[in-house]
Amino acid sequence: xxxxxxxxxxxxxxxxxxxxxxxxxxxxxxxxxxxxxxxxxxxxxxxxxxxxxxxxxxxxxxxxxxxxxxxxxxxxxxxxxxxxxxxxxxxxxxxxxxxxxxxxxxxxxxxxxxxxxxxxxxxxxxxxxxxxxxxxxxxxxxxxxxxxxxxxxxxxxxxxxxxxxxxxxxxxxxxxxxxxxxxxxxxxxxxxxxxxxxxxxxxxxxxxxxxxxxxxxxxxxxxxxxxxxxxxxxxxxxxxxxxxxxxxxxxxxxxxxxxxxxxxxxxxxxxxxxxxxxxxxxxxxxxxxxxxxxxxxxxxxxxxxxxxxxxxxxxxxxxxxxxxxxxxxxxxxxxxxxxxxxxxxxxxxxxxxxxxxxxxxxxxxxxxxxxxxxxxxxxxxxxxxxxxxxxxxxxxxxxxxxxxxxxxxxxxxxxxxxxxxxxxxxxxxxxxxxxxxxxxxxxxxxxxxxxxxxxxxxxxxxxxxxxxxxxxxxxxxxxxxxxxxxxxxxxxxxxxxxxxxxxxxxxxxxxxxxxxxxxxxxxxxxxxxxxxxxxxxxxxxxxxxxxxxxxxxxxxxxxxxxxxxxxxxxxxx
Length: 573
Description:
The chain has helices at residues 2-102, 108-138, 151-161, 163-168, 189-205, 264-274, 330-342, 353-362, 379-387, 391-394, 407-415, 428-437, 441-460, 464-471, 475-503, 506-522, 526-537, 544-570, and strands spanning 147-150, 172-177, 184-187, 211-220, 225-234, 278-284, 288-298, 322-326, 346-350, 367-371, 398-402, 420-423.
């Protein structure tokens, strides 16, 4: 019995030892696995931190690269803009004078030579415009502005514009307009017409016989929206299947015997994309091409638009106007004087803004054409003085002449008081349309009365009512005390701000923009305040220099208006 108990005891002890050994082994294995898991977690954390660091570094490098790229695009755009400005002055002379010579009595050889010169000038102008468009698109500076457009009249104008070119080549230019197309649609008329003009022009250039068809249809989506489908087809040279995929690439010339740099279709494609549409091409080599533009559009609620855009037959005779031309370049003086003479007009010529002001004090004119960049007094300064003069001088119809094609330039010039803006080189057709649209002295006087009653002031941003609400009966006294100090200090601070931007002192830029913002806000200048706040929030942005240029242009106008208000209060008006 005792032997049996001893065996059981030994077995129990042996089992316990085995269990202990197994437990120890399990604990060791668990400890080993825990250590391995701990190390793996540490390695994973380290890898994650390294990955986060790499991502952060890559993001920073990408941000820097993007800023450098944007800066390069801005610099390229600025360079091409300046280059375009310089080229347009001699180009204006070539285009304008050759256009006038073509209307004279020439023999066949002379006409051919002058016509070649004129066409070359037009081609160069088109190239400059394409280069500016491409750089603006690349830099993200193209804005799409919708307006109410009379659709049938717009396309009739396009067809009419190319009818002579088609007739010269014995081509049948057809215009097909589906009656289901709404009479009015919301479009960026200028950008859309630029695309369709390019497609029709290309079709005519690449078609030696047969026809070119411009067709317009509408696919309705609901009561107020749909898709405008415009197609330009031809029976020309066509495009090979292998080349169709490259047709909208910049600098490609596919199946185009006329040469060029191949920017037109690339620009057209990008403009249509900006308008949320698409442009496609179907073509067969030797049989022609069909370009289709599909553009989502809305129908306007307010359909106020000029319907008299298309007029059959010859243009009506122009009335004789008194015209003052302010232009410092002798060649440009000769060109515009000859163009006006061709249209039956006689102009007085002056060389700068100061001389223009002297002429306006001597007599009244129906139209003032004024170059922007002139010595002694430039066009913008002269315009500000004209608008701030007595009603007889201020009511003149004034049009700016500029070699710049930038949209912001046109906005700036109209904001300082110009009634219209013309870009050089100035074609005789465009000049003729301007002359036919000049308002009568009575119409101009009514417009000036509206401006004098606050319309001009509101567009610029100076609000005297804000200060009147703040100070009540004390407005007169307080404004006369505060305004001179405000003008002096703010002008000085603007100069300091520009210096800080030029020197790259970011903290100083932020501090000065904040300080100036406080001053202009206290004067009720909400537009300037908003612009300065943008600089204060993003003082390191590459856009700061261009923002300051806009602010400076607005500031000059506000400064002029505050001085006018001071003068008015001092005179007791």
